[in-house]
Design a protein that fits this description.
CATH class: Mainly Beta
Number of domains: 1
Keywords: Iron
Structural class: alpha+beta
Protein name: Fe2+ transport system protein A
CATH superfamily: Ferrous iron transport protein A (FeoA)
Shape: globular
CATH topology: SH3 type barrels
Radius of gyration: 11 Å
Number of strands: 5
Helix content: 10-25%
Domain Ferrous iron transporter FeoA-like: 1-73
Largest sheet: 5 strands, antiparallel
Number of helices: 2
InterPro entries: Fe-transptr_FeoA-like, FeoA, FeoA_core_dom, Transcriptional_repressor_C
Strand content: 35-45%
Organism: Anaerostipes hadrus
Order of helices and strands: EHEEEHE
Distance between the termini: 12 Å
Strand order of the largest sheet: 4-3-2-1-5
Length: 74
């Protein structure tokens, strides 16, 4: 399952980040790294962006970025 597919109010753990080097680095610089726990706060009406809580701070992630983060249930 991807971060974009996760249900609102659920907590997930990052399993893998897909993408090329620079793209992957940008995602990781936001604090989304393998093994980190993410809480899905809310999703905009049209599905873009997804608001999450990661490492104690709130972050909005575009739908395209969220589809590249593979997660599993916590």
């Amino acid at each position: 399952m991807t971060l974009g597919d996760a249900a609102v109010g659920s907590t997930v753990i990052v399993a893998k980040i897909d993408g090329d080097g620079a793209y992957k680095r940008r995602i990781m610089d936001m604090g989304i790294t393998k093994g980190s726990e993410i809480f899905i706060r809310k999703v905009a009406p049209l599905g873009d962006p997804v608001e999450i809580t990661v490492r104690g701070y709130e972050l909005s992630v575009r739908k395209n970025d969220a589809q590249c983060v593979l997660v599993k249930e916590a």
